[in-house]
Amino acid sequence: MKRFIRITALLVTGLSYYLPAPAQTLDPSFAAVELEKTGIIEDALLQADGKYVVGGTFTRLNGTAAKGLARLNANGTLDATFRTTGADAEVTQVTLQDNGRIVVGGNFTTVDGRSSALVAGLLADGSADASFTTTASYTTSTSSTPVLSLAPLPDGSLLVGAARLRSTVLRGYCTGSRRRASPMRPTTRPWPADPLFPAPLL
């Protein structure tokens, strides 16, 4: 009997590799999101309440002015309670810290009317978080390149990544201090034994 059960289980497992995947269908309860012709959504953050914070290169969303930042309700409609004037350039990354702060990254210098280059913090209602300060900046002889990745770390700091001709890794605390490494090599001070920030494989 055990042998029969084992063989049956193997047959079922093997057949699962050959069975077609369930057909994917659009959710009719989620409203279509309309952007201008050249608008792009670069990133989306799903909040615990089912809403989506989206960032990109758009200037209008569902017929309403929205400069690179907006929040959608769970059904896809624009969330009018997300009160931000947006960013002055593209928003490429959206993430959430444990304290509830929304952090965005991109190629901007101003978010919600507040000067904040490349990385900015937002409150839950979309307004600029005045407690989030950073001196982060990127300099190069070539044109500017946006932040391409944001990773909140357990100690409250952020790992920020960007692609350039000369790669730079930056890890900074949300209170304003930051550390920038030499090209292609991550910061080792003042975190010489930080297992979350290992040396690269070069």
UniProtKB/TrEMBL annotation:
InterPro entries: Delta_60_rpt. Keywords: Signal. It comes from Hymenobacter chitinivorans DSM 11115. Residues 1-23 form the signal peptide. The keyword Signal applies. Residues 192-202 have a biased composition (Pro residues). This is Beta-propeller uncharacterized protein DUF5122. Residues 177-202 are annotated as: Disordered. The keyword Signal applies.
